[in-house]
Amino acid sequence: MSDPKIQIREFIVRHFLFGQDVGLTDSASFLEQGFIDSTGVLELVAFLEKEFKVRVDDSELIPENLDSINGIVGLLKKKRAAS
Question: In 3D, which of 73, 77, 64, 58 has the Cα closest to residue 12?
Answer without folding.
Answer: 73
